[in-house]
Structure formats: structure tokens, C-alpha cells
Amino acid sequence: MSDDALHRQILDNSGEVHWMLDCATGRLMYLSPAAGRRYGYTLERAQALADTLTAGLPQRLERFAAGDRSRLRVTRELELPHADGHLVPVDIESVLVLDELGGPVALTGSVRDASERQEWRAQQKKFASMLSHEFRTPLSTIDGAVQRLEMTGAHHDEATRKRYTKIQTAVDRLLAMLDEYLSPERLASIGRKRQPNEVSPLALLETAAEQARPRRAAIRVQAEGMPQWLRCDPAGMRLCLELLIDNAIKYTDDNTEITLIGKKATEGGIEFAVSDQGAGIADDEVGKLFDKGFRGRAAVAGARAVPGSGLGLYMARAVVEVHGGTLTVENFSESGKKFRIWLPIPV
Questions:
Q1: What number of CA atoms fall less than 13 Å from residue 298's CA on the CB side?
Q2: Going by C-beta distance under 8 Å and a sequence separation of 6 or more, which residues neighbour residue 147?
Q3: Nearest to 327, CA basis, from 282, 286, 266, 294
Q4: 246 phi and psi angles, rounded to 5 deg
Q5: Which end of the chain is more exposed for a tag (fewer CB within 10 A), N or C?
Q6: Contact between 248 and 304 (Cβ < 8 Å)
Q7: Does pTM top 0.85 for this prediction?
Q8: Residues forming beta bridges with residue 331, ordered by sequence position
Q9: Contact in structure between 98 and 104 (CB atoms under 8 Å)
Q10: 272 pLDDT above the threshold of 90
């Protein structure tokens, strides 16, 4: 079998849709069989597909001729009309094929179904809206009560008025955090679009520890072998660490030490962990701990009942997963537990 025939066999049997069209006429020259299986198109009946693929092509060719090399390879997100009429979200990647003189003669590329990613984005936005509402409702109640106390409390002593101000400042800070971190658009963008600037993983841990020490003095950082810089969504990872530290503080005694760990992962990538020597997780609850709304027995029973909505660990895992990583928990053999973040990042 010749190389050309072998390449044709590979394209014909691929699960992705591959295509090629003539730049001068816009005529489809090749369309892989996957187009029929996925979108109902054949080479003979693909005018709607050809119209989609050639949209903006004249302007692209003009810019390429003017020296814009970014037009050589282009990726677009759009909705492709299926042969039966309904729209399918897709990614279309296309590359200009050049002749021996460097002029474009054909356009070739692939079509990938993006339905799953679009559904994931929709779920993220729905989750962020729900989460924002869960936090904002009690905060608004507190905010209104404090404002009323301030208006009607002219006879209160100075110490009491200072406490009102402190509560109001804390509420304002939490509401600002909701706007900054938990808007549907902000949470949905975590991990999907990397920040142009990298962040120091050591600084990430040290900053998280410093911010938590007013609530728990015994917090230490243990780091070794980490890279100087880490490419991730810095705000998202800060939020994830804050949620895990907050969880450790709430479910351990005031004198229990909390350790933040950062190191190379044995399986490759990087590992962050939040560990403590408090009570472990009940065996029958480990598998449900990251479920939305789940609250274990330690949260709802006994003298140490902890207020909450069961969303913190669920949100922390969502942030890690959009980075392509995992968030897990394990109990130590004697006492304590460790929440482990793994990120697939070369170090």
C-alpha cells in the first residue's frame, strides 16, 4: 500500500471529521466518512458544511497575502447545522495548504464535536449561580441586621459599635469575594483560559497559610522540589486551598496543627496537600465527601456541629478538575487525614 493510500485509510477510519476544499472555488475536495456518521453529510450533499467552512475565507486569504502568518492555522468555535437542521457546537481547525511558491491552494482541517464541553460550561455556570445564591442569602440577612443595629444603636457603647463595624467589614469582604470569585462567568473560566502570568507555588502555599493564621496559629508550610513557577489559574487555586484549609479548621480542635504540603508527585506533575491530625473521615462517607450538598455526621451531629451548606469541597474539586487534575482524601493509619490536589503539570 502506498503512503497516500495509507494516509487516506487513516483519515477514512478516524472518528473525527476531516476535510479539504479548494481555496479558489470553495468546492469540497474531500470529506471523511465520519461526517456522515456524526452530522449526516456526504461529499455530494455538503453545501451547508462547505458554506460554514468557507465563511470568512476571502478575508483570511487577504490577510495571509499581506503577511499575517497567524492566518495559516485557525481554530474557531461555532454551531454547525446538522443535516437534519439542528445546530451542533463544534471546534473547526483549519490549515492553509501552500504550493511550491508559498501561495494558498487548499484549506484542510478537522471538525470536533464540542457538545460535551458546552454542557460542562453550562453546568459550571449553573453551579456558580447556585453557589453564589447559597452564600449571598445569609450574608444579606446579616448585612441588613447589622445596618439596622447601627442605625438604632446610638445609645450603645463604643466597644459594641466597633463590633458592628467589624461584622459589617467582614460581610462586605465576603460579598466582594463572591463578586470576584464566584460569579458564573468567573468560575466557568477557571482552568479553561490560562493566565498569562505564572504564579510561584511556594508563594501560593505561604500566602494561603498566612491568611489562615488569624483563625489557626498552628499552620505550617512544608515544600520541597517544586518548580519556581506554575502555570494555572492563580485565583482558582487560591480559592481551592482556602476552601480546604477552612474545612480543616472547622473540623479540628483549636490546637491541632495543619500542614500545607507542596512537592513533585511520584506519578509526575505537582502535588499540593492539606493535612491535619484531627479526626478521620468515616469509611462510609469517603466516597460521598465531594458530592454537592453532602454533609457528614461530624457536621450535623454532636456538640461540635458545624454550620455550612455542603458545597465547599464540591467547589474545590470542580476547580481542580477544570485544571485537568484530581482532588482526593485519605485517612492516616493512626489519626488525621490528608486532602491531596494533583495537577498534571511538568516540573
A1: 16
A2: 168
A3: 286
A4: -60, -40
A5: N
A6: no
A7: no
A8: 337
A9: yes
A10: yes
Looking at the fold, whether 169 and 224 belong to one and the same domain comes out as no
Q: Which tens digits make up the pLDDT trace of 141-162?
A: 777 777 777 777 677 788 887 8
Q: How many residues does the chain have?
A: 347
Which position has the higher pLDDT, 287 or 137?
Answer: 287
Between the alpha carbon of residue 275 and those of residues 46, 211, 337, 339, 341, the distances in Å are 58, 17, 6, 6, 11
What is the helix, strand, coil percentage profile of the chain, to 5? 45, 20, 35
Q: Give tens-digit pLDDT for 203-250.
A: 999 999 999 999 899 999 999 988 888 878 787 888 899 989 988 998
Domain CATH number, residue 84: 3.30.450.20
The predicted model gives 173-182 an average pLDDT of 68
Grid coordinates belonging to 331: 485517612
Q: Where a domain ends, among 113, 137, 155? A: 113
- Report which of 178, 266, 259, 250 is spatially closest to residue 222, judged by C-alpha positions: 259
